[in-house]
Amino acid sequence: MDEIEAFSNYLTKSVNRRLLTVLSRVLELPDDYLWDNVQSHGSPTGEGYFRHALFRPVQKQTQEASKGLRMHGHTDFGLTTLLFSVPISCLQIWGRDEQWYYVPYKPGALVINIGDTLEIVSGGHFKATRHRVFRPPADQLHEERLSLVLFNSSIGDLRMAPAHDSKLIQREGCVEEQGVYKEFKKLTSQGKLVPTNRQWREIQIATCTDPTDTVNNRVGAHQVLIDGKVMHQREYMGVKVVLPVIFDFQLLVFILSLLDS
């Protein structure tokens, strides 16, 4: 336990703090702005957590029910997520061409996901990383996968808003191209309170849908068709979240045929 605590302290207070320094500079804020004003403190991981998990090969029945999906496409709810690169490929990110791509393995590397908090604090200049966990390539299907992840959470009682002291935001304004910042701005423009960071992360954890849940993982329940694409849509405390699902052309044709019938 002492080694795990020391390791978590190092990742949070050294690695992540330096990363937040770089991101603060991009926003043209004081070096420690994000660390002092947004990052949670009080334990080796603040209000976040360090996850160490060993995933074994998935049984055939589960594989078929989930269509290869291990975790729905989503964005993380905190500031940053630090993942250790591993040789078994399961993590995928959503590309600008609207396709899923495996994150390549690089020995000794850290994969950094930007979370919802950072997207909102940056006024949309930093985009929360859309990602999912999918079955590995065929030659890795029967291998175990070790996952080492540090989730860096923001201060729980903080209601997320752009850092208006940012000279970048003052000069260029905010960006509403995607996701959660656009939805949060919609609420604030109506004079409504946005969720606190604690509320935001807890409701998403509590209502997470299992990929094998055939009742909710369908168009008409938690999924919708937008511009011919199957999207996973949920609403949390007035904030609508829409994220891409598996793109399967034959599945899409089948769904469209059902809707037309």
UniProtKB/TrEMBL annotation:
Which is one Pfam family of this protein? 2OG-FeII_Oxy
Name the UniProt key words of this record, in alphabetical order: Iron, Metal-binding, Oxidoreductase
| Highest taxon in the source lineage | Eukaryota
Annotated Fe2OG dioxygenase domain residues: 49-154
List, in alphabetical order, the Gene Ontology terms for molecular function in this entry: metal ion binding; oxidoreductase activity
Please name the InterPro entries in this protein's record. Answer: IPNS-like_FE2OG_OXY (IPR044861), IPNS-like_sf (IPR027443), Oxoglu/Fe-dep_dioxygenase_dom (IPR005123), Plant_2OG-oxidoreductases (IPR050295)
Family to which the UniProt record says this protein belongs: Belongs to the iron/ascorbate-dependent oxidoreductase family.
Quote the PANTHER family the UniProt record gives.
OXOGLUTARATE/IRON-DEPENDENT DIOXYGENASE
Its protein name is: Fe2OG dioxygenase domain-containing protein
Organism for this UniProt entry: Aspergillus oryzae (strain 3.042)
Upper lineage: Eukaryota, Fungi, Dikarya, Ascomycota, Pezizomycotina
